[in-house]
Design brief:
The protein has 247 residues and is an alpha/beta fold. The protein contains 12 helices and 8 strands. A 6-stranded mixed β-sheet has the order 2-1-5-7-6-8. A two-stranded antiparallel ribbon has the order 3-4. The relative contact order is 0.13.
Length: 247
């Protein structure tokens, strides 16, 4: 929000020293446009939580260990329940496996917190191939092409290619998959049919319920673990639903 103020400050400074009627008119017009654009952005496009709404959101779930900037941005706030549960799952898996393979199209905040705790015990494969090269080094998956997000990735194609990727290029089948999902939870349903169990699911919009509502942020995410690693013991499946309100 500070960036648009910089050109405004420059214009106002020039206008002050020029001290002409036209300059003051121009500065006033630009100032009004800045205020209007900031209001529109805040009301419709921002994913931040205003300070006067932050306290209820912090009390909705445990945010200890996460920075102010992570908690006050709803896109990052959305990741907190998943990060906590993923840590619990990995804590169990690293005791069974020497090198746990984790897969996702998300290589940002979640991966950062995972590797703070499990660096050296977990290997990460990035579905978009921005932070790892397994899929772009393999001729099969490299042929999928690239787009604005990185490798053109589709879960149906990836899951159908798991065996060939491992046989032809040595790309291991993931032990754990976590990711964002669609409103109908389509990705989690596909992954279940490929030999995985959904051990954690979170749903619901991460929305402000008062002005400014900002951009719509969907909270749907999941964690899937390979069935071979779960054994015969019944798995405790957890769910989390976002329904935080500011009152």
């Amino acid at each position: 929000m500070l960036v648009p103020v910089i050109p405004l400050a420059g214009i106002l400074t020039v206008a002050f020293f020029m001290n002409t009627g036209q300059a003051r008119l121009l500065a006033g017009l630009i100032a009004a446009l800045q205020v209007l654009s900031i209001g529109i952005f805040t009301a419709s496009y921002s994913t931040s939580v205003p300070l006067f709404h932050l306290s209820p959101y912090q009390s909705f779930m445990d945010t200890k260990g996460f920075s102010f900037f992570e908690v006050s941005n709803r896109v990052h706030y959305r990741e907190i329940p998943l990060i906590r549960e993923l840590g619990r799952q990995l804590d169990q898996l690293v005791q069974q496996e020497q090198d746990v393979v984790m897969f996702s199209r998300q290589a940002g905040m979640v991966a950062y917190h995972v590797f703070r705790e499990f660096y050296g015990d977990v290997r990460f494969i990035d579905g978009y191939s921005l932070s790892s090269r397994e899929l772009t080094d393999c001729p099969l998956s490299r042929s999928w092409g690239s787009g604005k997000l990185g490798l053109k990735f589709y879960y149906a194609r990836y899951l159908d290619s798991l065996e060939e990727l491992e046989h032809s290029c040595g790309v291991p089948r993931p032990d754990v998959i976590f990711d964002l999902d669609l409103p109908n939870l389509e990705y989690a349903k596909k992954i279940k049919t490929a030999g995985y169990t959904i051990v954690f699911k979170q749903t619901g919009p991460v929305q402000l319920h008062e002005w400014p509502r900002g951009a719509y942020v969907l909270g749907n995410q999941f964690i899937a673990v390979k069935n071979d690693l779960l054994g015969a013991t019944p798995v405790e499946k957890k769910e989390f639903q976002f329904k935080a309100k500011t009152k």
